[in-house]
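Sat 14:20. Reprocessing the chain from the morning session after the first attempt stalled halfway. Input below, unchanged.
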Amino acid sequence: DGQNPAVLERLLADPDLGPMIRTVPEEACWIGGDLTLAIMSNAFIGNPASSFSGFIAKSRLALGFGHNYLFRAMDKDTGEWKTVCGDQCIFDKSVMNVMS
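Finished this time. Tokens:
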């Protein structure tokens, strides 16, 4: 959601994810375009605390797209990222509270 530029920098520096990430220049951004790109992307990495990310994840699921990465955590033992709650968690009131 662009709120923390350090997040994008870390993603771009990742040897696996970095080469696949495409960014849109600030002067070309607008809410409708950003939503369309996020909803139609091959994968979506969002922030579970963001209502914007939640809307995108719900839209992607409604259109039959998977690969929403909102609920991820690094396993401290292996250093690998794992899904801690699947795509359907975006609709779960016990997880998302009023944002579900």
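Residues 51-62 form the longest helix (12 residues).
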